[in-house]
Amino acid sequence: MKTSRLEAFSDGVIAIIITIMVLEMKIPHGTTLAELKPLTGTFLSYVLSFIYVGIYWNNHHHLFHVTKRVTGGILWANLHLLFWLSLFPFVTGWMGENHFTALPVALYGFVLLMASIAYWVLQSTISRDTKAGELLRSALGKDFKGKLSPLLYLCAIGFAFLQPWVSAFLYVATALMWLIPDRRYERALEVEASD
Amino acid sequence: MKTSRLEAFSDGVIAIIITIMVLEMKIPHGTTLAELKPLTGTFLSYVLSFIYVGIYWNNHHHLFHVTKRVTGGILWANLHLLFWLSLFPFVTGWMGENHFTALPVALYGFVLLMASIAYWVLQSTISRDTKAGELLRSALGKDFKGKLSPLLYLCAIGFAFLQPWVSAFLYVATALMWLIPDRRYERALEVEASD
Amino acid sequence: MKTSRLEAFSDGVIAIIITIMVLEMKIPHGTTLAELKPLTGTFLSYVLSFIYVGIYWNNHHHLFHVTKRVTGGILWANLHLLFWLSLFPFVTGWMGENHFTALPVALYGFVLLMASIAYWVLQSTISRDTKAGELLRSALGKDFKGKLSPLLYLCAIGFAFLQPWVSAFLYVATALMWLIPDRRYERALEVEASD
Amino acid sequence: MKTSRLEAFSDGVIAIIITIMVLEMKIPHGTTLAELKPLTGTFLSYVLSFIYVGIYWNNHHHLFHVTKRVTGGILWANLHLLFWLSLFPFVTGWMGENHFTALPVALYGFVLLMASIAYWVLQSTISRDTKAGELLRSALGKDFKGKLSPLLYLCAIGFAFLQPWVSAFLYVATALMWLIPDRRYERALEVEASD
Lengths: 195, 195, 195, 195
Fold this sequence. Notes:
The structure is a homotetramer.
Chain A: H1 4-20, H2 33-36, H3 40-65, H4 72-86, H5 88-97, H6 102-129, H7 133-140, H8 144-160, H9 164-179, H10 184-194
Helix pairs in contact in A: 1-3, 1-4, 3-5, 3-9, 4-6, 5-6, 6-7, 6-8, 6-9, 7-10, 8-9
């Protein structure tokens, strides 16, 4: 089976997730700056989650660029990833509304952790089930970022109960790490093309 | 007519259904574990419905993989299926918020029942209206799961008024039954290809 | 320009409209049948609107099936149609919540009327701007349904202030009229193919 | 990499933005004209934002029509644009609910300003990163509208604190300016084709 419908469905789900998060920013009733202020936390956590969902979409885009065929296992590994991403609006809203207090910050990290594990499972399933496996493995290389991120999320979950702002900093730092252009897939495809 | 636009539209509707269900998990105002606890029911019913909608998307994906042409009848049979799926967020939220009490559990089963009937109607319409009929029929075989599921939902509706947890168990069991990899379509396509 | 992106965007908007209408059915807090009863109006108006949006999607699907090229005028005529369709969730919820009283019923008819005019404008723009004009005109023929519907909506708006149930009957009757299979496009395409 | 998935994802996000804005029009509880009246502001700001999002979709459609390849930079420039567009429902609702008072009107202008800058960044990234650069530059010409719009938004932000209705007028005027058919891309493509 081709990947087009799986990509279209994932695009749809991710597009909705990234957009409904903004609905957690409730419109204030007054019109003064003072009334906008309590929304700062919600806005900052929205920006952070927007970037994270953007990173996932980006990586998903690259991942399926080297995948040619879809198996039943890939379909479910993909749905599993979408499940954890679908919890972003909830944890984003909860963390933002409570201005980065302990438990919401830890739960945010937990969802990030589970999403990163789900992404890793999806990658492994594709690498095992399809002929794209070799290309994918050469593209990923040591997959340094993919291995470091869950560790950083684990640290952040721990720090949430001591200094939640350290956790917030770790979330931002991990996001920035992923924002650095990643040319692994392009390089692997070029290598393949030049063979 | 080709199936691509019908698939894109269905993907869109199913993607929205699977994502807005999470909106029923209202963000709690406090930040303690005690305040997360009342959400357990909503979360569990969300997970269950996510899996069900995922199963429907999966089956829809397989079904239209062997369908080449769309008729007016197929368009409406497909919209009929989407209608019942669109009621998932409502019944999921109601069942979850009330911690699996009788009537919400029965209504959840009723929507599952109607969706399974709508899926069966869609299958039959495709099998009758298109040349894919033969391929589809050979792929479905005796369609054991398709015939057993409505019966299980009917049982669950009955049990809802006696022991709602039995119904919940039946919903989970039926979902698991569908999660077992189903290679009917792959096999039928391989048989066709080898002819 | 090709029609694919316009179709994908319209599919997305229509898929969201048809799905968020269900959010107007607020989950009741109790679990008795008595608490579901006030939702009857909302449910019935949801079913009606689901069918109407389904009809529009169906007709849109057929219309762009004979359209090969998109112009700036078509883009905006299409957005104009989507605008009126986007008001469906609002008028559906208002009419349903108030159990089909005068003003909500009239406003519902007004949005139906404007949508049917917008559809007619879109049809005319395509027929004028593209080479598909001739094929489209032969497919539409006298466009009996397209001309009768706005008149029926006008009648229904009038009746809303006398006997709103007559209006509701007219809305249902008009929807049923459109549900009758419409083979104009198929026939026109067959005629063209056989030439 | 091809542009198709980026276009599909953007279509999804824009379709959701344009549709969920209507959710800010809360259904009134009564059924009299008097109860609809407070919604006038919300409705007018909805119409304005619908047109703006429509313009952005239109321009996006044209822009990617001359873009053949997607780079990492383009992916993120596109997400940056979508981020600012995703704030439309919030500022539209706030401005509408408060009947065009100072701060909401200014914030609306700020989001318009940032979206226009984000669009300009996207354009520049495409023009720099891809071979379509030359075609795009010749299509844009002096990009008069693209340069004038941010200035008009800046003026409108200033006026918001003096005479918000002047700002509203500027928003409407800028939108109308973009509605005037823009044949730059068509012309550039024709020139290219005739070479």
